Amino acid sequence: MAQTNILLESGTNELEVVEFYLDESILPGADKMEGLMAQAVGSDNVDQYRGYYGINVAKVLEIIRMPKVTALPEVQHKSVLGAFNLRSRIIPLVDLAVWLGKTPAPTKEEPKTIVTEFNNVTTAFMVSGVNRIHRISWEQVEQPNAYMASVSSNTIVGVVKLEGRIVFLLDLEKVVANLNPKLSLRLDDLGEDWNASTGYKALVADDSALVREMQRDLLEKAGFNVIITTNGREAWDCLTTFRRKVEEEGRPLREFVQVVISDIEMPLMDGLNLTSRIKNDNILKQLPVLLFSSLITEKLRHKGVSVGADGQISKPEVATLARRAAALIREHGLDETTETDQQST
Length: 345
Hints:
The protein is of the alpha/beta class. The chain contains nine helices and 16 strands.
């Protein structure tokens, strides 16, 4: 099944989710609490569960039948089944159930393979089956609470109810980074020519605790003062508070924030909708917006452009964030020296 029904509009705070499922066996004597993260396949088989999961359509290249797999000579994790050839591309195949630590249930159905592309990497995941594509609003996606995040090892980034089912949105980026540490985010040296005393103010919006803290560490190392938010709505609420102070107190916006760095995929409000709101606001539109996301590819870059993003960086290129953010601040005349000079002329 090829990827279809892709949203053409950007900034609507909508996404399309491919819903798939994993059938697992609950071993005799196992803690039945394990089943709370899934739904029973049938009332007559209490030891078998079907867990429902989702992935953003924007990350899916296509969905195919189980391919012929060639074993790899050396693998780091038992979930890596091998690799297959898809139109002259060699793609690794990961058994998602095994990676999640589940025991696959016996089934007569042929498994499906979801071929994905994000972080400029192509990876395929074997799942029990695929249901359909849903178009939903990010407002329907809830962030997992602290307990759910801890018991799932932070592999769940969102929870949504679809047709009476609880569907978990998985952090497949974490899966890929875990299997290949070279693809994970890293803090690289800023270089000897970097001025770490900028004092620039950055507002960061990202739903991943790991990414947020890494961005905070990098930006603070680069001399930024960092405000952290966990999703687009929280970032927007923060910005509207700054806007109100600008209007009521007559203070320049740069005293509160000088650049916004945002992920794209976030519960409640995504980064594209956040960018659109900023660029359509008479006061906030002067702020440069830098999108930092695994969804930034040559095929999808136009989405950020269409909502007015001033820059886009694909994960995991975290080392370029500080330099690009500082450059955008200067380009928009929001560095303190430039604005002071402008006011004095």
